[in-house]
TrEMBL record:
Keyword Coiled coil set for record: yes
Source organism: Hyphomicrobium album
Keywords: Cell cycle, Cell division, Coiled coil
Sequence segments annotated as region (Disordered): 81-106
Lineage start: Bacteria, Pseudomonadati, Pseudomonadota, Alphaproteobacteria, Hyphomicrobiales
Stated name of the protein: Cell division protein FtsL
Amino acid sequence: MRIIILGALMLTLASAFILYSSNYDTRQLEARVEQQERAIEKTRGDIAVLKAERAHLARPERIEPLARALGLGPASEQQLAATPQAALDRATATGSVAATGKKKGN
């Protein structure tokens, strides 16, 4: 009878330890997930701010006076050079930005 009680006590203690351990691990994982979710939200906010800044800085009414002050103007026909077809084919094959302004696969 003592052996059964001792065995039940040991089994109870082992179960309690296992449950405590799994609860502790679960809490650590939850904290890690929350931390990563906060980092994701912060990054999304940063991206939104950067997009707004880019939109503000790229406004034509802002760029025009700056370009005039620097003596810049539209490119003349003599300043433009034709891009060889081989270079376009290589750029398209490697997935870099092509004439459409989009990456291959988008």
